[in-house]
UniProtKB/TrEMBL annotation:
The gene is ddl. Its main location: cytoplasm. It comes from Rhodonellum psychrophilum GCM71 = DSM 17998. Its EC number is 6.3.2.4. This is D-alanine--D-alanine ligase. InterPro entries: ATP-grasp (IPR011761), ATP_grasp_subdomain_1 (IPR013815), D-Ala_lig_Van_CS (IPR000291), D_ala_D_ala (IPR005905), Dala_Dala_lig_C (IPR011095), Dala_Dala_lig_N (IPR011127), PreATP-grasp_dom_sf (IPR016185).
Length: 328
């Protein structure tokens, strides 16, 4: 019997565009001999399956089922590719836990914590060989913020929404007079803002996943951007950023990064495939943790996709491994 898999996409934020792109790629690569796949789109107040002919069929939220040709269809599991809220922040995970459907991504608690950059750093900062940039977490946009920031932190600074994704609302601040505008921009996206000292280093992004009881750290991708930082435009516009997989690291760096990343995965109790972004600081080569993505992009050009190919693994087999792991 083929397992029935709901491929969940859409979302409540600006990242839904990326989510739909990821879902299209995943749908192409899932093993149809093992799974019957139903794409489920989730928007505020509108959860539905779209048939081949374009008909919209509403999802019954009591048990996450659909009625297709007078037949009720329930799902064995969920392949979650919904970036941002509610797929990446733990809300969907909590719902699936309550109705008893397994899913390919982190549980509700891990998803909720890792969506908050400040809280994540507080949990991982005592991992051996891992460093975090000095930062301040702000909870409201008040006039006193700029003085406090300039007193406690060294310019240049990164100002970013604490819960955002795809680098929306993020700024790099070099002069004190740019600070308030950057704070306004970040607070427009979120009611919590993280201000952190700029770490000067080589930037990398690395995938890690657990399947068949083994945690696999993929080869890192080095991100060389002609832009000042890896922002929305740099992430999604071809040619602005050069991505080198595997990234240029010494053997010692590769081994150290693997150790650190595997420990981050374990300490945050991650499941499925996640992506960790980090810097290796110039001069010292120290590993600086930037952030973790628990529902990383899976488009054709996505970093994880490149990294899976770099170990000689078929994308289809990678997805099968993620799906089978959720049934264990």
């Amino acid at each position: 019997m083929k397992k029935k898999i709901a491929l969940v996409t859409g979302g409540y934020t600006g990242e839904s565009v990326i989510s739909l792109k990821s879902a299209t790629e995943v749908a192409k690569s899932l093993d149809r001999e093992k799974y019957t796949v139903f794409k489920i789109l989730i928007y505020p107040g509108d959860w539905y399956h779209e048939t081949e002919s374009g008909e919209k069929i509403s999802v019954d939220l009591n048990d996450f089922s659909i009625l297709l040709n007078d037949q009720k269809i329930t799902f064995d599991g969920v392949f979650n590719i919904l970036h941002g809220s509610p797929g990446e922040d733990g809300k969907l995970a909590g719902y699936f836990d309550m109705i008893g459907i397994p899913y390919t991504t982190c549980d509700a608690l891990t998803s909720a914590i890792t969506m908050n950059k400040g809280y994540t750093k507080a949990i991982v900062q005592d991992i051996p060989e891992l460093y975090v940039a000095k930062s301040l977490q702000l909870f409201e946009n008040t006039g006193e913020n700029t003085a406090k920031i300039l007193k406690e932190l060294r310019l240049p600074l990164f100002v970013k929404p604490n819960n955002g994704g795809s680098s929306i609302g993020m700024s790099k601040v070099k002069n004190p007079e740019e600070l308030q505008e950057a704070l306004d921009k970040a607070f427009a996206e979120d009611n919590q803002v993280l201000v952190e000292e700029f770490v000067s280093g080589r930037e990398f992004s690395i995938g890690v996943f657990k399947a068949a009881g083994t945690t696999t750290v993929l080869p890192a991708t080095e991100i060389v951007s002609s832009k000042e930082f890896f922002d929305f435009e740099a992430k999604y516009t071809p040619g602005i950023t050069e991505e080198i997989t595997p990234g240029r690291m010494s053997e010692e760096e590769v081994e150290r990064v693997k150790r650190v990343v595997a420990t981050v995965y374990q300490k945050l109790n991650c499941k499925g495939a996640v992506r960790v972004d980090y810097f290796l600081e110039f001069e010292t080569n120290k590993f600086y943790f930037i952030e973790i993505n628990t529902v990383p992009g899976q488009t054709e050009t996505s970093l994880i996709t490149q990294q899976v190919r770099a170990i000689g693994m078929e994308i289809k087999d990678f997805y099968t491994a993620l799906i089978e792991e959720m049934f264990h």
